[in-house]
Amino acid sequence: MEQLLQQIEQLKQEMNAATGSDSDAAEQFRIKYLGTKGIIKGLMGEMKNIPNDQKKNFGQVMNDLKQLAEEKWESLKGAAADAGASAGVDFDWTLPGAPVNVGGRHPISIVRNQIVSIFKRLGFAVAEGPEIEDDWHNFTALNMPENHTARDMQDTFYILQNPDWVLRTHTSSVQARVMEKQKPPIRIICPGRVYRNETISARAHCFFHQVEGLYIDEHVSFADLKQTLYFFVQEMFGKDVKIRFRPSYFPFTEPSAEMDISCTVCGGKGCSLCKHTGWVEILGCGMVHPKMLDNFGIDSSKYTGFAFGMGMERICQLKYRVNDLRLYSQNDVRFLDQFTGGV
């Protein structure tokens, strides 16, 4: 017991003599005396060897020692903090602050907002729908019944089967839901994300973004479709861009067409982007198939309409000359920083 008391007195003298003006010295003091493997923890373990009639007195001595160590540790921490504060007195507060990084919209969001703004000026409302769809809204209601060859054009992600639930392959399913609940006149655009089971490459991805449009009313003609899309192209790409229509096939429109614009890179002279043809395809379109109108109880003898659909990535590629679809979803700051100034 006497030997332990002498050791404790020596420790008190060491603690009182400890000095230091930085955080490292304070931390070393804590580890040496108050740490889980420190001196005080070790002395506490000697309690089992103290006679029972002296345990109370020894416990009081150890509590005093621990309290002294904690007070000294707080003192050393305070000295370190004061030293750090005094060292910063010479700081020039008139210096400019550190620059703050300003974020920006994603290029797809920029293009989406531009497309929505253009069609809103023509009276189109924005409609949205679920990304997980049933077979009826995604295929059958759009004149693609079971075993229809048009389904082979789309590699589909199936969530459930019998009944079939899929990740929507196009935003045409939104058109179906609108026609289900709303009677003509209908004038909407449907922007959103769609999914196809494709191998990811510079030209293809398992998900991408579409904007589809639908206009149904009395006396709607193909001429209305052409003028609507012509206005869109001029507003998006400039007044000098030319357009052309080529016959095509889509199960939900008849007649159907694909629309090309003169290449925005070479001006129609021919380059690698347009494969030296001078033209770039940007969308598919056509007059709404009468059977599709009948599926939703819309009188096809009274109403006609047109529909169109385009990929936002394709529009973005033409506006900003992005040559790899994977860049849109890789979150590479070096790529995204190029659009910081975008609205």
TrEMBL record:
GO cellular component, one term: cytoplasm
Gene: pheS
Residue ranges of every copy of the Aminoacyl-transfer RNA synthetases class-II family profile domain listed in the record: 111-315
Organism domain of life: Bacteria
InterPro entries, A to Z: aa-tRNA-synth_II, aa-tRNA-synth_II/BPL/LPL, Phe-tRNA-synth_IIc_asu, Phe-tRNA_ligase_II_N, Phe_tRNA_ligase_alpha1_bac, Phenylalanyl-tRNA_Synthase, tRNA-bd_arm
Pfam families registered for this protein in UniProt: Phe_tRNA-synt_N, tRNA-synt_2d
Protein name according to UniProt: Phenylalanine--tRNA ligase alpha subunit
CDD domains the record matches: PheRS_alpha_core
PANTHER family, alphabetized: PHENYLALANINE--TRNA LIGASE, MITOCHONDRIAL, PHENYLALANYL-TRNA SYNTHETASE
